[in-house]
Model the fold of this input.
Amino acid sequence: MYSKPTLNRICRLSAWYDLIITWPFALPITLGILWQYGFMPLNAVLGFAALPALDVHAVLFGNFFGSVVVIWALVRLYLNDSRLALFDGLGRVLFSVAMVNALMAGISPIIWAFLIPELAWAIAQLIGFVRFRTRVEV
Done:
């Protein structure tokens, strides 16, 4: 059974996860390092097709993504409000749809490492929010 403290804890843990995973995307230099020394070698070791070099468009949108997710994570940590679990869960559903679309279009299977936790956080928060809301009005 979800209680308000449990839902808050899930929301905070998901925010910490977001900070850890996405902060390198927020700046061009850290995204470049992550791509060249993280994703490209990992993709090669796993035997997947070579990743393309980042162009200015990919860096720009990667930085938009990283910046927004980092700020959203900080908001959730600062406010510590269980109602934010609903919005975070819905955002994660949207991100997951985009990742599934990219997988169907042939993106590197490395994206599964992002998709699975994204879906898990979405389910935990949305089910938690619905269960908690039906017990007590938030």
Remarks:
- DSSP finds five helices and no strands in the chain.
- Residues 56-79 form the longest helix (24 residues).
